[in-house]
């Protein structure tokens, strides 16, 4: 009997534990027949026996892994993002466990006070190798509520509304989901799962395991493709792997942010795991606001010219931007004769003239192009940079396989070489590139206001806790023709945005993007000057962020500081909210100017009230937000 026990002990599973600096989060790694990990938040188990594996060429790691060494270290640094969307200084503090295995595979695991992260590293000699698959599983100890955005396939614009479903009801064969996802335990603990430092590698998708869990699936690496129309493509041949890549490298970080609703909204996990800025000179990178033409359909009135896609209209837009201190205007689809030809403008457009007109008024020009046009005409970047254009909006990628991930990086590097900003639409979520190349100023990948009546505040209220919780988000807010959802009957020339006027204004404080659009007509902005001046004054980068009240799916209240000014924004979904907030964070007495829902905004969404009052750190504000409502203000 003793001999048998001794033999059993030789083959017993090895367990390594790793705690966060404060000890509130613990990660247990089990090395046995499989490599698995479990995560605990205090006494609550969040993830249970989650296997991870990696198939490199003909070798599969993760089955009976053989441990060579276990090394412990600390991560303790301060990151200063070039484009700080939440904080000017971001602490990166974690305990790390590096497990090296025979066969040239190692795993870095980190425990933060607000979550966990891990990544594979491969050392397979020189040259290239094939990553055939990476196995990622999220096994939950019981049924959680999952807040996910489903998709039928790998071709997606990442704009589907959120589905809210128990993991016990999410079945094998159901549509998969893209990242990020938000999970909620029966105790109310929130878990945000996503990835960072995705380089030369596809984005991850997840599908149901059928037993309270999720399993990874990746698009294969394209080997050949052909254009489809003026902005699409068909993959005609694939490699039998998800990535053909360097044989010595680290793979993307997989991370889970764990805690309260406020923990999720305040997190910077994607930032700290992204990698270092690779640009020597970033002084030319200027975040800011953008007057946008496409949503309002070039609608201008009370003028003596015919409004439309022409220089007279864009000069009017530039004048409006200059009046309110807006840094850029965007020429969206329609400024060139053919989408495929970026060098021939329509007869009514002269880009050089608009660049010069804007420069005289401190307004830069951003041009829309499809990704396919840029791919087929790479010299378009240098051509318009020499002309004085400040940035490009590149659209319709709609894929996130290895080739397309590399396209994002290739084009962003080329734009950086010529000091151009880039805003990706038809895009996947942030996954680290914007930290390494911060001229990548924003991404879409969100169900934004361009969807008109399909952009509902009941879906939008989740964005601070899911999509915007992993980085910049080009939502395109700013409707002055605000409407309650049942009244939103906007047309191309007379668009409407769901949510109250105060709600639309509050989005500029609540949402984060290095380029923040002003989507409505300049005529409306000029007629609604006090509202426009507030929206245009809200910074796009911040020194500090404080989430004051948070309940995912119900409301979000945040304060953000730029210099010595504090801005406060509050938003809600379809249920009215009464929220009390303390101003103890402001540090000294100040003067508050605010905008709130009017008495009848629950029905007539354009109804708002402006007010002012002196405030102190002892002041408590009582905010009443009507359904689909908002509140915003600035303390000086």
Q: What is the CATH topology assignment of the domain at 14-272?
A: Beta-galactosidase, Chain A, domain 5
Q: How far is it from the N-terminal to the C-terminal residue, by CA?
A: 77 Å
Relative helix content: 10-25%
The average pLDDT score comes to 96
Total of helices: 13
What profile does the largest beta sheet have? 19 strands, antiparallel
CATH architecture of the domain at 14-272: Distorted Sandwich
Query: Beta-strand percentage?
Result: 35-45%
Class of the domain at 14-272, according to the CATH hierarchy?
Mainly Beta
Cα gyration radius (Å)? 25 Å
- Uncertain runs are 1-10
Secondary-structure-based class equals alpha+beta
Compute the number of strand runs: 40
Shape label? globular
Structural account:
- This protein is an alpha+beta fold.
- It has a domain at 14-272: Beta-galactosidase, Chain A, domain 5, CATH 2.70.98.
- The protein is 17% helix and 41% strand.
- The longest helix has 16 residues, at 402-417.
């Amino acid at each position: 009997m003793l001999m048998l026990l001794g033999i059993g002990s030789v083959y017993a599973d090895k367990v390594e534990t790793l705690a966060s600096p404060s000890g509130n989060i613990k990660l247990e790694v089990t090395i046995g027949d499989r490599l698995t990990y479990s995560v605990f938040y205090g006494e609550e188990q969040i993830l249970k026996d989650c296997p991870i594996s990696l198939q490199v060429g003909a070798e599969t790691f993760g089955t009976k892994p053989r441990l060579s060494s276990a090394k412990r270290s600390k991560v303790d640094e301060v990151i200063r993002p070039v484009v700080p969307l939440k904080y000017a200084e971001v602490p990166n503090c974690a305990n790390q466990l590096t497990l090296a295995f025979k066969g040239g595979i190692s795993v870095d695991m980190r425990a933060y006070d607000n979550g966990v992260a891990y990544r594979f590293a491969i050392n397979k000699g020189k040259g290239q190798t094939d990553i055939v698959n990476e196995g990622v599983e999220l096994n939950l100890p019981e049924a959680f509520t999952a807040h996910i955005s489903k998709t039928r396939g790998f071709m997606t614009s990442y704009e589907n509304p959120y589905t809210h479903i128990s993991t016990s009801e999410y079945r094998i064969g159901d549509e998969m989901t893209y990242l990020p996802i938000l999970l909620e335990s029966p105790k109310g603990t929130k878990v945000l799962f996503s990835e960072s430092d995705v380089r030369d590698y596809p984005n991850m998708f997840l599908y149901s395991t059928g037993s309270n869990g999720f399993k990874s699936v990746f698009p294969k690496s394209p080997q050949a493709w052909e254009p489809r129309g003026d902005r699409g493509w068909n993959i005609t041949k694939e490699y039998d792997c998800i990535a053909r890549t360097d044989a010595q490298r680290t793979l993307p970080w997989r991370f889970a942010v764990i805690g309260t609703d406020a923990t999720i909204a305040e997190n910077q996990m994607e930032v700290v795991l992204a990698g270092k800025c690779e640009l020597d000179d970033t002084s030319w990178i200027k975040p800011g606001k953008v007057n946008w033409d496409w949503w309002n359909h070039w609608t201008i009135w009370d003028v003596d010219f015919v409004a439309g896609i022409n220089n007279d209209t864009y000069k009017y837009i530039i004048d409006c931007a200059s009046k309110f201190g807006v840094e850029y205007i965007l020429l969206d689809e329609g400024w060139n004769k053919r989408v495929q030809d970026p060098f021939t403008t329509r007869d009514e457009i002269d880009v050089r003239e608009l660049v010069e007109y804007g420069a005289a008024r401190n307004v830069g020009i951003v041009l829309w192009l499809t990704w396919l046009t840029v791919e087929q005409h790479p010299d378009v970047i240098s051509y318009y940079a020499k002309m004085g254009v400040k940035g490009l909006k590149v659209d319709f990628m709609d894929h996130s396989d290895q080739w397309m991930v590399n396209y994002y990086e290739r084009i962003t590097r080329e734009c950086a070489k010529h000091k151009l900003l880039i805003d990706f639409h038809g895009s996947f979520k942030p996954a680290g590139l914007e930290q390494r190349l911060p001229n990548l100023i924003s991404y879409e990948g969100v169900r934004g206001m361009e969807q008109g009546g399909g952009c509902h505040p009941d879906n939008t209220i989740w964005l601070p806790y899911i999509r915007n919780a992993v980085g910049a988000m080009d939502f395109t807010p700013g409707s002055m023709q605000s409407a309650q959802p049942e009244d939103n009957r906007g047309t191309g020339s007379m668009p409407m945005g769901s949510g109250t006027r105060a709600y639309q204004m509050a989005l500029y404080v609540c949402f984060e993007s290095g380029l923040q659009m002003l989507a409505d007509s300049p005529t409306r902005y000029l007629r609604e000057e006090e509202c426009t001046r507030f929206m245009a004054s809200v910074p796009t980068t911040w020194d500090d962020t404080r989430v004051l009240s948070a309940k995912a799916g119900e409301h979000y209240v945040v304060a953000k500081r730029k210099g010595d000014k504090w801005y406060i924004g509050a938003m809600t979904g379809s249920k009215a909210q009464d929220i009390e907030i303390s101003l103890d964070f402001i540090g000294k007495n100040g003067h508050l100017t605010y905008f709130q829902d009017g008495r009848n905004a629950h029905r007539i969404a354009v109804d708002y009230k402006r007010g002012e009052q002196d405030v102190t750190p002892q002041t408590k504000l009582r905010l009443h937000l009507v359904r689909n409502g908002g509140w915003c203000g600035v303390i000086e």
